[in-house]
Amino acid sequence: MKSVPKLIRRFVGILFMSLFILIVLNVTVLLLIGMRYQSQPSPYKETQTVAEALDRQDGQYVLGQAAAQRLEQIGAWAVLLNAQGQVVWKSDKLPQEIPLSYSLADISVLSTGYLKDYPTYTVEYGDGGLVVAGFAKDSYFKYPYQSMNLSFVRALPQIGMIFLAANVVVVFLIYIFSNLQVTKSIRPLVQGIHALAQEKAVHLKERGLLSELAQQVNRASDIIQSKNRELAKKETARANWIAGVSHDIRTPLSMVLGYANELENNAALPEPARRQAAVICTQSLKMKQLIGDLNLASKLEYNMQPLHLQKLSAVAAARSVVAECINSEAEGIYTYETDFSPEPCWILADSGLVARAVSNLVQNSRSHNPQGCVIRVSVFAQDGGVTIRVQDSGAGVSAQTLQDLQNRPHYMFCDAHIDGQRHGLGLLIVRQIMLVHGGQVRFASEPGRYFQTDLQFASYSEQKASDTADKK
Fold first, then answer.
1. How far apart are CA 49 and CA 42, in angstroms?
2. In which region does residue 447 sit, left (phi positive, over 0), alpha (psi from -120 to 50) or beta (all else)?
């Protein structure tokens, strides 16, 4: 990729630029610090000033007033030694520990070092005389023939920390400034990738450091959009095919069902033939139901089923389904129980679809328990919502099957029995009905004891409050 070498060159350039700026900065700071301390008067010049201002009048040495004030101002003292090392003149406020006579060795030491811890400096005066000036003990640091400001020496650790902090700040600022362009280039790429995850169309500007990546994101977006359009065409064709086949099969199936019903009721036919005709009627009704389920599942999946939402009593909807199931029960091997809340439990739903969901759950219990069982339908308020529960006392399902039912949105379970699909379109339609209502489906079971399905709806009041908030 061309973007990678470009980024490497950019960061290498930033590195060298940072080093250059740091070198210039450090040299500048050092010069400023040096100028600050060099701007202070030199002790040698101060001593020279004393020597020049010292004059002999009437056999006495007298220091000029300006020089004397200067000595007092800087807290220094001075003495004049003759050729024999004797002090022939001393300034005011001379420390008591300063001796008044010196040997050659003493003069050698004080010329290059200290006298009683006072940094001292000497200047030749007249014929063999020597002016010695002493400064405050903590004012200067002397090392063979060199001197440094003691406060500067003591401040070296702080100065080093200042240099380090300044370098860190400069490097950080350079990093931030140099990466602004990279950040500007990355931000739309991140937004584009998020949009790709949601399968939205993305068109990024193909310029800057990451232009090649932007180009690849745009290309991926075009591919995704193209595939989505093709998939939508295929899904539309599939939905239309299912609707067409369902419609085309109904007419011949109605004819088969009608003729089979006539044969079943024809007393002139032998009993075996009439039983065979009854089987044809039963299986034809199952085929008709499956075709209706397939058509409804297709419409729900592709949002083609009209949704008529209204304020609906979940208790009334469940009661009507139970009554219909009892009336259609011919064998008498199923026992129906109800446990309805005394309150109406209002929900915002399509009455036809809710009835279909409950009916499918009841039918599912009957289909999987041909020997008979107790089917219990309950409606109650729970956690601010409304739950419709259908539970049977039948065979139940295994833990693995229950997990598949709970976790696979389009779970279809088939086995080798002649009954065909089990937990197939019926539960799929229930899932899709709850999906369009914004509800949830929960399964529970224990093999050999029960199978239970909960349809969890938002209550009518909460649903209306949510819709109002969405509109705002």
1. 11
2. beta
Give per-residue pLDDT as tens, 78-119.
Answer: 999 998 889 899 998 899 899 999 988 888 888 888 888 899
pLDDT band at 418 (very low <50, low <70, confident <90, very high): very low
Sketch the domain layout of the chain as residue ranges: 3-39+154-178, 43-144, 206-305, 307-471
Characterize 218-257 residue by residue with b for buried, 16 or more Cβ atoms within 10 angstroms of its Cβ, and e for exposed: beebeebeeeeeeeeeeeeeebeebbeebeeeeeebeebb
Give CATH superfamily name and number for 307-471: Histidine kinase-like ATPase, C-terminal domain (3.30.565.10)
Q: Is the pTM of this model over 0.85?
A: no
> Measured at the alpha carbon of residue 147, what is the angle toward residues 145 and 148, in degrees to the nearest 5?
160
State residue 2's pLDDT score.
Answer: 56
Q: Where do runs of H (alpha helix) occur along 302-339?
A: 314-328
3-state secondary structure of 407: helix
Question: For residue 194, what pLDDT is reported?
Answer: 83
Q: Which amino acid is it at 158?
A: Q
Residues 155-208 pLDDT 10s: 878 887 887 788 778 777 777 776 666 667 777 777 888 888 887 888 888 776
DSSP state of 459: B
- Strand-pairing partners, residue 337, are 376
* Alpha carbons 88 and 130: distance in angstroms, whole number: 10
Contacts of 318 (CB under 8 A, 6+ apart): 338, 340, 358, 377, 379, 388
> What integer pLDDT is reported at residue 132 of this predicted model?
92
Count of beta carbons in the 10 Å neighbourhood of residue 30? 12
Helix (H, G, I), strand (E, B) or coil at 445: strand
The structure tokens listed for 312 are: 């609906």
User: Which tokens is 283 given?
Assistant: 């299986």
Contacts with 28 (C-beta within 8 Å, 6 or more apart), sequence order: none
pLDDT digits (tens, 9 = 90+) for 266-275: 888 888 888 8
Neighbouring CB atoms inside 10 A of 264's CB total 18
CA distance 267 to 274: 8
Concatenating the DSSP letter of every residue in 331-386 gives S--EEEEEEE-SS--EEEE-HHHHHHHHHHHHHHHHHT-TT-EEEEEEEEEETTEE
Top-ranked range on mean pLDDT: pick from 223-237, 292-306, 383-397? 383-397
Structure tokens at 290: 């499956």
Are 409 and 435 contacting, i.e. CB atoms less than 8 angstroms apart?
no
Residue 423 DSSP label: S
